[in-house]
Amino acid sequence: MKTEAAKKGLLRRVRRQRLNYIAVLPSLITILNGVCGFVAIILASKSPAQRLGGHSYLALAGYMVLVAMVWDMLDGRLARMSQSTSSFGGQLDSLCDIVSFGVAPAFLMLKMLEFELRTAGLADGDFLERFIWLAAAAYLSCAAIRLARFNVENEEDESAHMSFVGLPAPAAAGVLVSLVIFHQQTLPRLSGTGLYAFCESLILCVLPVVALCVAVLMVSRIRYPHVLNQYIKGRKPFAHLIRMLLLLAFAWWELPAALMVAFCGFAASSAVKRLYYRVLKKNALLPVVQTFGAER
Q1: In the prediction, which pLDDT does 287 show?
Q2: How would you label 94-106 residue by residue, b for 16+ Cβ within 10 Å and e otherwise?
Q3: Which of 52, 114, 234, 279 stands 20 to 30 A from 296 (CA)?
Q4: By mean pLDDT, which of 70-79, 101-110, 138-147 is the weakest?
Q5: CA–CA separation, 190 and 284 (whole Å)
């Protein structure tokens, strides 16, 4: 009898935890994020040699990941502005993020590099091909860990969203897709020159290493600033406006190159800054240690 009563009590508690109400508009925007990631995977699965409207399918897939980033920025801000943040929204956001910023960039990188390896005539099972698969799997795994950790440590207060612990998954995805877009759109314009062969070989060799680096940065404890809250929102110095205008002009002139510089620069900035301060601190302590040893 006691066991039966305990089971009924557990069922009543489960029913009380059932989700009845959700914030519709933020949830729809979050789902659009996941749909864009799904479309990016579909586009990347097509033949890289085919083109649509003058753009390769790989470049279009990269742009769909960038569109997913826009939706990802809007859903959380809209939920906080309307005071409708919830655990359901956070879980839904991470599920869509793993598609758009985990699976899609890894698959996109894998398809492009596999196509280039086949074009170069490299045999299947080559060491480089296995390394590319390893890099894609490591990136996806670290993206999943990064999103799970964010769910556990996240606070719904707006003041807690001034920085992130570890490279955000959208920024890591931006690094990979910007390199793919640059390779697919800007490099063909340089065909026939020595710079084309050098840049193409460099990107193809560096891209798997970059994927491993951003994977490590995602699960690191290095702090990255929230771009919207720290660089755009609120009152800023006049020189900050000039820098933003120059960046927009660069994007208008050559969007793929501007995306590559922006995402790669953002990913490297905090890591380089942390390394610099560690070396500076170590060099500052070295004379103290030497003096203490001499006195002894």
Answers
A1: 54
A2: bebbbbbbbbbbb
A3: 279
A4: 70-79
A5: 47
In this structure, are residues 108 and 180 in contact, taking their beta carbons and an 8 Å threshold? Answer: yes
Nearest to residue 69, comparing CAs of 105, 23, 43? 105
- Amino acid found at 145: I
C-alpha–C-alpha distance, residues 46 and 42, integer Å: 7
The pLDDT of residue 290 is 47
Q: pLDDT tens digits for 272-285?
A: 888 887 777 666 55
Domain ranges in the chain are 24-295
Nearest Cα to Cα of residue 199 among 257, 139, 247: 257
In order, the DSSP letters of 141-170 are: HHHHHHHHHHHHH---SGGGGSEEES--HH
Q: How far apart are CA 58 and CA 49, in angstroms?
A: 9
C-alpha distance across the termini of the chain, in Å: 77
Cα separation values, 80 from 7, 90, 96, 101, 177, Å: 38, 12, 18, 22, 29
* CATH architecture for the domain at 24-295: Up-down Bundle (1.20)
Distance CA 48, CA 43 (A): 9
Element (DSSP H or E) covering residue 51? strand 51-52
User: Burial of 205 by CB count in 10 Å (0-12 exposed, 13-18 middle, 19+ buried)?
Assistant: exposed
